[in-house]
Amino acid sequence: MVVDPEPPVSLAALDQLHQVMADMSTAGGLADTLQTVADGVVNGLGYELACVNLVRPDGDLVVAALAGNSAAEALITGRVGSRASWDRRLGMGEAWGELRFIPYTEGWVLDEDDVPQWCTGGPAPRFEDEWHPSDRLFAPMYATGASGGELIGVISVDRPRSGRRPGAWGRKALQMYAFQAAVAISNARLRANMQRALVRLEREQQALRASEESFRQAFEYAPSGMAVTEMGGDQHGRILRTNDALCRLLRRPASAMRRYSFSDLVHPEDIGTLLRTSTEGGRAELRLGRRDGTYVWVSLRNSVVADAADAADGPRFLLTHVEDIEERKRRELQLAHRASHDSLTGLPNSAGLRSRLTARLCSRPQAGRPGSEGAVSPSPTVYAEPGYAEAVHAEPVFDHHVHVVAPARDESGADGSTKGLAVLFCDLDGFTSINDRFGHNTGDAVLIEVSRRLSNGVRDGDTVARLGGDTFVVLADGLGPADAQDLAARLRNAIIPPIRTDGRTVRVGASFGIAWAHCGMTAEEVLQSADHRMYVDRRSARRRQNRPTGATG
Fold first, then answer.
1. HSE on the CB side for 128, CA within 13 Å?
2. Which tens digit of pLDDT belongs to each residue from 61-92?
3. What is the C-alpha to C-alpha distance for residues 208 and 81, in angstroms, rounded to an integer?
4. Is 307 within 8 Å of 316 (Cβ atoms)?
5. Are 55 and 80 in contact (CB under 8 A)?
6. Which of 172, 256, 291, 519 is deepest in the core (most CB within 10 A)?
7. What is the CATH classification number for the domain harbouring 278?
């Protein structure tokens, strides 16, 4: 009669194995799952000792859980075995399906490797299938359940309670258990990763909420103006949000601000400046319109912010910082005005006059006939003063500069139709005696009144400047020689009437010299020419005054 070496499996044993697997699948965290796996081998599969070796990120295996022997648990839990040693163990011995059994007759070669192990003592086996204390049985656990998947750990067992090597049922049960343990460990790892991700997400959300609240407070309560505008698309530049400081600065309610973009509020002369700075890091100084129609000087500074929900691909906005620089601009303009204007009369001074004159002139004379803008001639003629001509050979010039030329006279001596930039040099006659006799206060009052009369006697766009002392200069564009003579006569007549100051009446006269500015001359040359003409005309006038009555020329 043949005796079955392994008794039939009882229902109680199956129920116990089912309960062990259920406990393993419902364990909490990864550590609890690993310990449940080890306990299940001892409680449900009939082994006295079970050890769970878990693969670490670096590939080595660490003893993560042990059941059945408290002394062994205290000794080897947490110790690490190299992956090379474990690969050697799983590559030798007998293959029992997915299991690996290394009998004591072969296992002696592993005694010196670095895999943590617990050695039990006992007598040598008396039967062929009796368990030897040095026998080793390993159940690999793979991520996909099969040996082709990634190794996630190894269950090692020792001392079956039957005292015999496991038969077909025991081997199959351990293999199935290792499969379920791999699933349970993978699920526990997934849950742990999800929990860590949820914790990290919650922390990030808390940090984001704190950051948003910090931004909100910094935005709302900033002492200077702040605005968020759309960036890109059809609504580029549209104001989405403003703080109280900006609304107060522009004297507009927040609800009204959302109807505009900065291009709607900027001064027309500053629109180009705004467009050049509507980018990340853009910075500009320009004027923004208030509700009452006035403008205020501000400094704009832009930076790009992304939607926190999707910083990589989400919408981006421009955060614009608006600083009130009205007072600074007023001081700068005052300083610039003082540098270019006479402090007594408020007229442009020598520097201001030379700046305006230089802006009209270039260093290259016009290529073409005087008065024919843009005309080109192989040998053009440029006239320095009325009645005087000088032939200048120049290459044809093509540019966008409108050249300034002097009026010319035709061959008969009559004034031509060319208009030019007249420079009238004016010296007051009799001013020095008034200043010496009545003092500087009276002299200053005379200069102020003469400045007013000169300014009232010219057209809008003409320039009246004071070079210093009692010397004035008038720039009048678009005049012919006769026009310039008429202007000088009108201004002289405007100056002659008495001037009443400090309870007394005084009179001054004026001598004028007329010169013509044209490209190719410097501002200094133009002024020297006008000064020279003024002295020539003054000497001529004095000779006429001293000529005996009835004398003929």
1. 2
2. 999 999 999 988 899 999 999 999 999 999 88
3. 43
4. yes
5. no
6. 519
7. 3.30.450.20
Shortest CA distance to 226 belongs to which of 241, 210, 211? 241
User: Tokens in use for 320?
Assistant: 């614009």
Residue 402: pLDDT over 80 = no
Report the half-sphere exposure of 539 (CA within 13 A, side-chain side).
Answer: 5
Identify whether 212 is part of a domain: no
> Is residue 270 domain-shared with residue 419, that is, in the same domain?
no
Q: How far apart are CA 530 and CA 20, in angstroms?
A: 115
Whether residue 181 is found in the same domain as residue 238: no
Local confidence band at 390 (pLDDT 50, 70, 90 cut-offs): very low
Task: Using the Cα atoms of residue 491, residue 492, residue 495 and residue 496 in order, give the sign of their dihedral.
Answer: negative
Calpha distance 47→39 (Å, rounded):
10
Q: What is the pLDDT of residue 370?
A: 44
- Nearest CA among 464, 521, 529 for reference residue 491: 464
Tell me the mean pLDDT in the region 410-435.
Answer: 78
Count of Cβ atoms closer than 10 Å to residue 182 Cβ = 25
Q: Provide the 3-class DSSP secondary structure of residue 45.
A: coil
Same domain, 513 and 404: yes
Domain containing 362 equals 350-546
Letter for the amino acid at 492? R
Based on the fold, state whether residues 108 and 135 are members of the same structural domain. yes
Mean pLDDT over residues 428-441, rounded? 90
- What tokens does 31 get? 């550590």
CA distances from 53 to 28, 154, 234 (A): 19, 5, 62
Structure pTM?
0.47
Residues 184 and 46 in one domain: yes
Same domain for 317 and 354, yes or no, is: no
Least confident range of 9-18, 79-88, 298-307, 354-363 = 9-18
266-279 per-position pLDDT tens digit: 999 998 888 877 66
Q: How many domains does the chain have?
A: 3
Residues 168 and 68 in one domain: yes
Instruction: Summarize the chain as % helix, strand, coil (round to 5).
Output: 40, 25, 35
- CATH number of the structural domain spanning residue 112: 3.30.450.40
Return the pLDDT at 399: 53
* Segment among 89-93, 161-165, 234-238, 304-308 with least mean pLDDT: 304-308
Query: Does residue 205 lie in a domain region?
Result: no
**Looking at residue 416, what DSSP letter applies?**
-
Co-location of 356 and 313 in the same domain: no
